[in-house]
């Protein structure tokens, strides 16, 4: 295990909808406030999506993103990881535009295409707070989240041009090979930062065997790298704990899991961060500060962002 662990809080994401939890932040102020609270609880990194204030729909609006990240930066020095997943129907240029405009220290980089399916959750709710929720979730039965080699090559160019470190999101083992290819093709330089994302329907399920396989396979394909783990659903804390045992870092937050423990919803991202820190300290691992995370991940520094 490492002496320090980088704990990321994914504040709101684009998966959960307002009906699913009364604690899900949706307005720019709520998202920024939650990010600052996560930092105060011990998170070194916050992963940021934007939502439409009127109804909580996840959107790739760069003005909403700017409002959120400038508010966070004005209050603390946490590392901000901006999403480039975008919203439905956005072009590659639109998805990566937050990197072009704001030059963040860290940005998500989806390392391949995937069937990204959310539709099974429709059976769990009879009434919805907003009409868009049911339609949004249902359309994923016939949805592919596209990340082609052509688009990834363009992402690499833009990330490199603006000094933004990619956080490679790995949903399945083939994406490890994609990252290895990008390194060998000279599109991106080592050392790389990888995040294994488990539990999304269309990708690998969370299990001790699957995480151990992914880490081992990445070591054989890539060599040295820094990694984190995030998990959709109830296996979040057990699998994040395993990540620490394997020398990795971890992500918690309401983007991935709405619960603190069985039958008890998390009232904030900070609650999940605090729980993960308690677990890490029991294992003898201290949470990294934002500046320590910058050194671990090889980031350019908060003074070089454009917001």
Topology:
Elements: E1 4-5, E2 7-10, H1 28-41, E3 45-48, E4 50-51, E5 58-59, H2 62-73, E6 79-82, H3 92-102, E7 106-110, E8 114-115, H4 131-138, E9 144-145, H5 149-162, E10 165-170, H6 173-184, E11 193-198, H7 208-222, E12 226-231, H8 236-245, E13 249-252, E14 259-261, E15 264-265, H9 269-282, E16 286-287, H10 290-297
Parallel strand pairs: 1-16, 2-3, 2-13, 3-6, 6-7, 7-10, 10-11, 11-12, 12-13
Antiparallel strand pairs: 4-5, 8-9, 14-15
Helix pairs in contact: 1-2, 1-9, 3-5, 6-7
Tell me about this structure.
There is one protein chain. This protein has 307 residues and is α/β, with parallel strands linked by helices. It has one domain (4-304): Aldolase class I (TIM Barrel, Alpha-Beta Barrel). Helix content is 38%, strand content 18%. The protein is built from 10 helices and 16 strands. Strands 2-3-6-7-10-11-12-13 form an 8-stranded parallel β-barrel, surrounded by 8 helices. The chain starts with a strand and ends in a 10-residue tail after the last helix.
Name the CATH architecture.
Alpha-Beta Barrel
Judging from the principal axes of the Cα atoms, what is the shape?
globular
Average pLDDT for all residues: 97
Give me the count of strands. 16
Secondary-structure-derived class:
alpha/beta
Overall tally of structural domains: 1
CATH topology: TIM Barrel
- Count of separate DSSP helical elements: 10
Assess the beta-strand content as a share of residues: 15-25%
Biggest beta sheet attributes: 8 strands, parallel, barrel
- Spatial order of the strands in the main sheet? 2-3-6-7-10-11-12-13
End-to-end gap: 35 Å
Full CATH superfamily name: Aldolase class I
Classify the oligomer: single chain
Which stretches are low in confidence, meaning pLDDT under 50 for 5 or more residues running? none
């Amino acid at each position: 295990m490492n002496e320090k662990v980088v704990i990321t809080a994914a504040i709101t994401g684009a998966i959960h909808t307002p009906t699913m939890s009364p604690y899900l932040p949706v307005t720019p102020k709520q998202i920024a406030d939650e990010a600052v609270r996560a930092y105060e609880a011990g998170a070194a990194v916050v992963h940021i999506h934007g939502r439409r204030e009127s109804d909580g729909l996840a959107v790739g609006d760069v003005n909403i993103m700017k409002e959120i990240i400038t508010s966070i930066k004005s209050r603390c020095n946490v590392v901000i990881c901006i999403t480039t997943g975008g919203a439905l129907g956005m072009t590659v240029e639109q998805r990566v535009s937050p990197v072009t405009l704001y030059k963040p220290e860290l940005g998500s980089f989806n390392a391949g295409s995937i069937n990204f399916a959310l539709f099974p959750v429709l059976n769990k709710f009879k009434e919805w707070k907003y009409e868009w929720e049911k339609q949004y979730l249902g359309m994923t039965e016939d949805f592919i989240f596209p990340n082609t080699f052509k688009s990834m090559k363009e992402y690499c160019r833009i990330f490199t041009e603006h000094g933004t470190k990619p956080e490679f999101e790995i949903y399945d083992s083939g994406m490890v090979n994609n990252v290895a290819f990008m390194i060998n093709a000279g599109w991106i330089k080592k050392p790389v930062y990888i995040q294994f994302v488990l539990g999304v329907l269309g990708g690998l399920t969370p299990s001790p065997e699957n995480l151990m396989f992914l880490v081992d396979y990445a070591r054989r394909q890539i060599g040295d790298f820094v990694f984190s783990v995030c998990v959709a659903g109830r296996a979040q804390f057990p699998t994040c704990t395993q990540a620490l045992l394997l020398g990795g870092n971890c992500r918690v937050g309401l983007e991935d899991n709405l619960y603190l423990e069985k039958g008890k919803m998390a009232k904030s991202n900070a609650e999940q961060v605090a729980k993960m820190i308690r677990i890490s300290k029991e294992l003898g691992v201290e949470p990294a500060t934002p500046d320590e995370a910058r050194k671990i991940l090889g980031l350019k520094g908060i003074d070089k962002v454009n917001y």
